[in-house]
Amino acid sequence: MSAVEIRAARRTAVVPRGGAFRDVEAFALAAALIGPVLADAGIAPEAVDELILGNALSGGGNVARVAALAAGLPAGVPASTLDTQCCSGLDAIRLGAARIAAGEARCVLAGGVESFSRAPLRAHRPRIKDEAPAFYRQPAFTPWPEREPDLADAAAALARLEHVTRAEQDAFAAESHRRALAAPPTEEIVPVEGVVADPFARRLSPALLARLPALAGEAAYAVTAATTAVEADAAALVLLVPAGTCGVRIAGALACGGDPMMPALAPVAAVQALCARLGLRAAEVEQVELMEAYAVQALVAIRRLGLDPARVNARGGALARGHPIGASGAILAVRAFHRLRAARGRALLAIAGAGGIASAMVLSRGETEPGSPWQD
């Protein structure tokens, strides 16, 4: 088996639902990245063996295939769309890397895309004549309705269980926004609709945070709009190839499942399993990109994994950008790639998905690379 590296990585800005991308279809967001990623890598479209995209909301079909054709990839390039909800983008990269490691491909485009703004309305088909369609917001993620809590309720339950107060969650959200506002300009964003930076980050004052009503949970541990990532539109894409001598390598990656009642805990188990496989301690990793779907989710992972908060989402996380479900995991990879190109070391990525699933990945560049399960 061969080692795998990310040769190039780009993303669009992350724009909250109803913003500048409100009229842009999901496939078009992804298509906008294919040319720039190939150009960055110096690879011709004809050399691409496959495109794999994560997506959760496009309503069926194969958004990856539509994006490939829209971007001008040869018609002979196959494309697959993967839905593991929030984990989709990172899982697409993980599966693309596995294809290369197994010798089945040499050049794979992988990532994720989501458009909350253009997502179709969803309804259950009537069972009897004259019955109206039953519209729904999200599908089932378990076969047991009593074991499938609203995600905000699950986050609030976790806060109560782990004694993560509303004040701690508020402070974490404010810091995420502060870091995003202070972050230096980045080359990771491809302009779409004239948007060249993530527009959502702002200063969150203690007074503003205190005024927000609870979305879920009792007062002391409540989840609010500030401690929940907003729905957003975005795409992110990486180019995967057999590893060379100076690229950002995928040291390892895996997915795992956990308790559907506590989906935010699944990344902890995923990171622990991956670090055990690599002979690595999570606390030793220089950079961490951890999904902030909810502040409490990130805070519990930091606590249970013994992470240094200063190393986690050092340039702001999803609370300061937004959560484009199928793209969010791939965005973690794009951000880590660009930071590793500037500073050698390792990056740990982790994200949770509805239904109690999670995915984790370690990237590395330089002398600190751990042993790789992709290598002999």
TrEMBL record:
Q: Does the keyword Acyltransferase apply?
A: yes
User: Taking every annotated instance into account, which residue ranges of this chain make up the domain Thiolase N-terminal?
Assistant: 6-242
For molecular function, the Gene Ontology terms on record are: acetyl-CoA C-acyltransferase activity
Which intervals hold domain Thiolase C-terminal?
249-364
- InterPro entries in UniProt: Thiolase, Thiolase-like, Thiolase_C, Thiolase_CS, Thiolase_N
Coiled coil (residue ranges): none
Protein keywords: Acyltransferase, Transferase
**Which Pfam families does the protein's record reference?**
Thiolase_C, Thiolase_N
Q: Which family does it belong to?
A: Belongs to the thiolase-like superfamily. Thiolase family.
Protein name stated in the entry: Thiolase family protein
